[in-house]
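<given_protein>
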Amino acid sequence: IHRQQSRPTLPPAKLQKLERLSLYYNLPEAAIICTKCGFALSPKRTSEHPGKKHGIARSARHSLKPLLSSLNLPDPDTLVPRPNGSRRHPYLPVQEGSSCKRCGLHCASWNVLADHLRAEHRDKLKRTARKNSRQHWLRDHTQQGVLFQS
């Protein structure tokens, strides 16, 4: 997981170029967010995304790849999750889901959360399964109805 590091600031002209391509340079969690799609892009795919997903001409994307390379962005999956109580991010959608009572992981998918519990908290699940019915193990270890951005 990448902790926040000192990241380069961009001059206004480069920020405007990103904006024209519907891209947003997010700080302090260094990522490029597609403002149309509402999610952070993988550094390997960021330069292709505006063309493939939104039909933006190659000429408009000229010099995007070197600009993005200069930022040395981490993969979004390695970023530290946004802290609970964070101000609403203008370019990330609000999702409804559940969170793990053990570690606070937020997730919109029950299947992903169930896999997380089995992989990360198997020992705790086994102890409580002996005490309680196995029927409600997922509900017993999650908080439902959580709103979050990621």
User: Anything to note?
Assistant: The first helix runs from residue 12 to 20. The beta strands are 23-26, 31-34, 39-41, 95-100, 106-107, 142-148.
